[in-house]
C-alpha cells in the first residue's frame, strides 16, 4: 500500500554492459527507455522496473497465461519474452485496455458476468480475449475450426471456439463458463480489436 | 424457501440515515471488481519498497538426511549477490507452532524440496542465479515415500484433521456385515493433489524502527501476524501483516507458510526490504498438498437397499515433520442411517512433504469413495441410486444422534433430478451413444460441516452519514468484501454504497482465516453484531452525531464457545453426464449440475461462482489431476502446471449450480452454512459413476485417465 509508481526514467540507472543493454519498450503507448539485465523478461520488466503489476506471474514458464500481454497486437506470454529481444515493440497490458475511466468492453463484460473470483488470472484472461477476437477476425483457425472453413476468412466465434482459444489461460477459481459468456457478449456487441489497442 | 434473516435493525437516527435497507440476498457485484479488471488490485509481491532486495530459495535435492556443508563462494561472487542464508547464519527463531516453519534452523532434511538456504540479491535475476550457484553437500539416509495399504508403520492417530476422533464405531459392524443379504467391499484410491492457486505464495517484508511489516499471500493475516510475532520474539503490536488481495488459496495459504518467515528473516539479516515469491515448481514441496488416501468401503444391505452395515477405513500418509491426517472417513459418520458402522483412519509418517488442507479436506476424497460405493450397491441391487440414498436418509446424525439443524439432501437430489432430466434412465451400461461416443449419467451426494470461529469487528458511523466497517477478513476470491458489506448494510438499514469496508490487514480487528467455508459465518456474525449495536446506539442518540462519529466493537468468541446441540452440515447433489471415446479412452464431461442446501445464500451472484468453481476443481480431481511421488528421488514428479493438469476452459462445458434456500435458525444471525468447499465434494464421484454408466467399467483410482480406462474398452470399441 505504500509502494509508489516509479518514474520510468528511474529504471535506467546503470550503463549498458556485457550483461545489460539499453532498450526502449513502448508500453500502453508510452516509450520507456530502459537499461536491463539480459535475463530480464518482459514480465519482470513490467512488474519490477515499470511498476506495471497488472500482468501476473503465475508460473514463469509459459504454462498458465497469467502474464499474457499483447505485443504489436498479438497475445504472448510475457514471461517467455526476454525484454532485450523486444526492443521497440509495442506492448499492451491490462492497464492499457481502458481509455481513461472508460473500460474496455471486455472489462465491462467480465464485471457484468462475474467472470473472475480471486482476480489473479484476470488481466491475462482479458488480454488473451482481446487477442483472440482479433485472431478470429483475421482468419486464424483453431483446432476446433471446421476443416471446411475458408482459409483466411473470419472465424465465427462459437462457444467451442472461445473455450478452445481461451484454454491457454488457467483459472483455478473456475470462472471459465462466465469467461466464455463474457467474451461472447463482446463478440455479439462488437469491440475494438487487439490491433486497435496496441497502437 | 427464501427468508429474510437479516431484518433491518435500525433505520438510523436521522432522516438522512433512513434510506431503505438493501436486503442481504441480493446479487451484488464485487466491490473490488474494477481494480481486478484494470490490474490495479495489488497482490503480495506487488509492493516494492525502495531498496528492496529479492530472495530465491534453495530446496534440498535429497529426500532424507542432513546438510554437511555449504559452499557459497561462487554464489556470493556473482554480481548483485547480497547473502546466502543457511542454518549457519540465519536469525534464530523461537520454536514454531507449526514445525514446517522451523526454517534454516538446523541441518536436518526431512523431505525433498525442504528449504536449506535462501539466496538474497539486488535483483530477481541475480537472486535466482545466486540460488543456483549454492553448492550443498549432504549426508543421505534411506527414505520411504510409498504409501501402501499394508505399510508396516501405519498407526492409528489420536485424532484427525478437524479434531475428530480417528475411529468411531456404533453397533457391531462385523456381525452385521457378515449377516447382510447383499454386500459390497471395494477399495478406492485418491492420489496426492495440489492446490495450485494462480498466485504463488509471496511475501514482501521490511523492518522499520523495530516494527515488522509483511505483505503476505495468506488466507488469514491475523494468524500470520501472531506466528511471526512468536517466531521473532515480538509483541503482536510490533508486526503488521497485510493480505489485501489474494490470488486464491484453496487451503494452502490457510496457515503461515515459509515465504512470510523467510522474507522476514532475510529482511532482518540484510537490513533491507526483501521480496520473496516462491517459484511455482517449488510449491508442491513446501505449501502442503492433499495427502493420498487408500479407502476401503464395505456396505451391507437388505435386498431392498436398506443399509445395515457401513465401514469406511482410510490409510493415508503424513510427513516426518508433523502429523496431518486427511479425515476422509468422517463424512460417512454423517451421511447414511446404517445401524452398524465403523469408520477409521490410519496414517504412516513417510519422508514426504507435509500434507495440509486442500479444498474440503476429508469430504472431497472421502465422498468420492463413499458415493462411488453407494452407486456400486445401487447397481448390484438394481435400484435407482437416488432411491437408494433416499431409503437410507437418517432422522438424526448417525454417529452422534444429534438432530440436524437442517438437512435437505433428499430435496437436493430430487430437485437436481428434475432439473437434470435424470429420469427416465436406463440403468444398463454401455448402451447409449452420441456421435460414436458412449454416454452415461451419474449422481452423487455431497456434504460439508458448518464451522464457525469467534471474531472481532468494528462498526463506525461518521458524522457525515457514512459508515466504516473494519474486520481482518480475507477475500481470496470468495467475495468476502462484498458479502460483509451486505451484512452490514442489512444490520444498519442503510444502502451498501454508504458503507466503507476495510479488510485484509492484521491492524484491523482480529479475525479467523478464510477457511473451512467459515468466513462469511464467522466474520459476518461479528460484523452483524457490531452493526446491530451501532444501530442501537444511533437510535438512542439525542441530537446530531459527535464530530468524530460513533464506534461500536463486537466479539463473538462467547457465542462460538459452546458446541451446538445440533448436527450442522450443508448438503448437496451432483449430476454429471459424460461422453467416453472407446478408441482413445478419453472421458469428457458434457454437463455438470449441482443443487446445494447451504443455509441462506446472501449473494447469489458470487455464490454461484463459488459453487461452479468448486465443481470445476472436482472435475479436475475426477479426470486430470493426480500427483505422484517418485520412489527413487522422493519428489512430486508433476510439480508444475505443465505436469499437473488443472482443468482448462475447453474441459469445462455447461456447469449449472442451484440451491435450496434453507431457513435454519441454529447457525448464526445470517442463517448461513458456508459454500466455498461443498461444490468440489460430490463431483468426482458423480463423474466416475457416469463413466461406469457409460461404459460398464468401474474405476476406483482417480483420476480417470485414458491409460486406466482404455484397457477395459476393447470389447466396446
Give a summary of the structure in a few sentences.
The complex is a heterodimer of chains A (199) and B (717). By secondary structure, chain A is an alpha+beta fold.
Describe this structure as you would to a colleague.
The complex is a heterodimer of chains A (199) and B (717). Chain A is an alpha+beta fold. Chain A has two domains: 8-96, Ubiquitin-like (UB roll) (Roll); 105-189, DNA polymerase, domain 1, CATH 1.10.150. In chain A, 30% of the residues lie in helices and 14% in strands. Chain A is built from six helices and five strands, in the order E-E-H-E-E-E-H-H-H-H-H. In chain A, strands 2-1-5-3-4 form a five-stranded mixed beta sheet. The longest helix of chain A has 16 residues, at 122-137. The model of chain B is unreliable at 1-22 (pLDDT under 50). By secondary structure, chain B is of the alpha+beta class. Chains A and B meet through helix 1, helix 2, helix 3, helix 4 and helix 5 of A and helix 1, helix 3 and helix 13 of B.
Order of neighbouring strands in the sheet with most strands of chain A: 2-1-5-3-4
Name given to the CATH architecture of the largest domain in chain B = 2-Layer Sandwich
CATH class of the largest domain in chain A: Alpha Beta
- CATH fold name of the largest domain in chain B: Aldehyde Oxidoreductase, domain 4
Question: How many strand units of chain B?
Answer: 26
Distance between the termini of chain A: 31 Å
The proportion of strand residues of chain B reads: 15-25%
Stretches with pLDDT under 50, minimum 5 residues of chain A: 1-10, 191-199
Count of structural domains of chain B: 3
CATH homologous superfamily of the largest domain in chain A - what is it? Beta-grasp domain
Helical element count of chain A?
6
Name of the CATH homologous superfamily of the largest domain in chain B: Aldehyde oxidase/xanthine dehydrogenase, molybdopterin binding domain
What is the number of helical segments of chain B per DSSP (H or I, 4+ residues)? 16
Let me know the largest β-sheet of chain B.
7 strands, mixed
Whole-number mean pLDDT of chain B: 95
Q: Identify the quaternary structure here.
A: heterodimer
Shape of chain B: globular
